[in-house]
Amino acid sequence: MKNYIIVTGGAGFVGSNLIKYLLLKTNKKIISVDNYFSGSKKNHVNDRRVRYINADTANIQKILDKYKKKISVIFHFGEFARIHQSFVNTEKCFSSNICGTSNVFYFCLKNKIKIIYSATSASLGNKGNDQSLSPYAFTKSKNLQLLNHLNKWFGLSYEALYFYNVYGKGHIREGVMATVIGIFERQYEKKIPLTVVRPGTQSRKFTHVDDTVKGCYYAWKRNKNRHYSLSNMRSHTIKGVAKIFTNNMLMSLRVCCNIEVEVKNNQHYNNGYLYASKHQSIFETIYFNSLFYNPSYILKKELLSIPLFGMYLKKLDMIAIDRSQGIKSIKYVNEETKRLSEFRPVIIFPEGTRTEFGNQPELKPGIYSIYKNSNKPVVPIAINSGKFWPKNNKMKSGKIIIEFKDPIQPGLSKEDFLKKLKSDINSLNH
After folding, report:
1. How far apart are CA 82 and CA 237, in angstroms?
2. Predicted confidence (pLDDT) per residue in 252-261, tens digit
3. Fewer CB within 10 Å: C terminus or N terminus of the chain?
4. Residue 351: CA atoms inside 13 Å, Cβ hemisphere, count?
5. 213, 17 in Cβ contact below 8 A?
6. Which of the 8 DSSP states describes residue 377?
7. What's the mean per-residue pLDDT of the chain?
8. Which residues pair with 347 in a beta bridge?
């Protein structure tokens, strides 16, 4: 029985996020093979189905020999992956990307294992004419040629995935392997100027890691022996990205209102969970859009009628409750929540509206229906925003705290669920 998945580079940024997603979507055991050149033990996923092996892919035959008949697929992400550094450390680039990868290909061919290969957009630039602009692009383009030939000559099963400037939770923030957004994020937090490489007008298709790993999974499941570009549809200049950081609402709150923001225990996945939050201020309706990637809110249908703002909400595919429709509306909300939560975080304010700091109204019963029918964990979010940014918008200095509580797992009775949720979201409301 082929019940193992191999992820080379599983302690790296993309690899570790892929492992988390595979744990959600499969019941297979996962082995990470990583030499920790750019990977880190901090990225390890604490799950009994995951095992980590510290080794080079050049030795993959020896490392995985006893598993070879049990492996269903290898996601090969364990390569040297930076353009500039490939000029500085060319030997390491060639050792990893030529020697290591050819051994991985041969191991898959010999043992009839499907391979999912992470290609790079760097080899596609200028209509493919940029393949020789760097040692990194050169090695990746040659590996793609080899992969295509092995499929043509011997029937090697593969999918080739082109990554585009992946960012998100766990990206490298410092050192020679740091990403652009990772560097900006660290510099912003340390309140130092953002370093933009001239001219700054160069554009990139920055793509969130959640979208990237989902693309990897679905390419594997489609099993078409094809090439896929996993990218954002829009490009952003480096200057434009820097402005997103410098214009951030957090900066405005700190400078203008002397309000700091602290987020506690944000350790949960964006997708596959529902989020139920205390609602005291306009602050969270704005800030959650930067805290979560592409969230969908469960909201009152009346909000869709607000000029301009309503059109904006419709475009973002929010889940609107039409209270006049009764059971029909509840069924619609349950179905949409179940659908959207597979690939987007779904957020609900279970008290139904904004409340003043200190108030603890009863939760709307609809939250239990959503919890029960979705059969997904609900993450309570406690917040004290109303203390410093109340309904009347008369702000005062202090620290807004957003605290993610432990997920409430499916299966609780209505009484126990509502009691637990109400207690958790009000833990900062005093």
Report:
1. 19
2. 676 567 788 8
3. N
4. 21
5. yes
6. -
7. 87
8. 275, 297
Q: Tell me the mean pLDDT in the region 348-352.
A: 91
Whether 374 shows a pLDDT value over 90: the answer reads no
How many Cα atoms sit within 13 Å of 100 on the Cβ side? 24
Intervals of CATH 3.40.50.720 along the chain: 4-239
Sign of CA dihedral 12, 18, 20, 26: negative
How many angstroms separate the CA atoms of 162 and 125, rounded?
Answer: 12
Structure tokens of 392?
Answer: 């009347």
Q: Report which of 343, 311, 173, 162 is spatially closest to residue 245, judged by C-alpha positions.
A: 173
Q: What is the rounded end-to-end Cα distance, in angstroms, of the chain?
A: 55
pLDDT, tens digit, 9 for 90 and up, residues 169-225: 888 888 878 888 888 888 877 767 678 887 888 888 888 898 899 999 999 999 999
What tokens were used for 362?
A: 């009863």
Choosing among 3.30.70.360, 1.10.1060.10, 3.40.50.720, 3.30.1330.30, the CATH entry for 4-239 is 3.40.50.720
Selection from 79, 63, 160 nearest residue 114 by Cα = 160
Evaluate whether 379 touches 303 at the Cβ level (below 8 Å). no
415-423 contact pairs (CB < 8 A, 24+)? 417/368, 417/371, 417/378, 418/363, 418/365, 418/367, 418/368, 420/380, 421/276, 421/350, 421/363, 421/367, 421/378, 421/380, 422/360, 422/362, 422/363
Convert 240-279 to b/e letters by CB count within 10 Å (16 or more is b): ebbeebeeeebeebeeeeebebeeeeeebbbbbbbbbbbb
Which position has the token pair 């059969």? 375
**Pairwise CA distance, residues 336 & 370, whole Å:** 10
DSSP symbol at 215? H
What's the pLDDT at 66?
A: 95
- Strand, helix or coil for residue 289: helix
Residues 6+ away with beta carbon under 8 Å from 289: 295
Q: Cβ-count burial of 168 within 10 angstroms (0-12 exposed, 13-18 middle, 19+ buried)?
A: buried
Structure tokens at 232: 């954002």
Provide the whole-model pTM.
0.61
Share of the chain residues as helix, strand and coil, in percent rounded to the nearest 5: 45, 20, 40
Please give the Cα distance from 81 to 299 (Å, whole number): 42
Q: Cα Rg for the chain, rounded, in angstroms?
A: 24
Contact 378, 389 (CB under 8 A): no
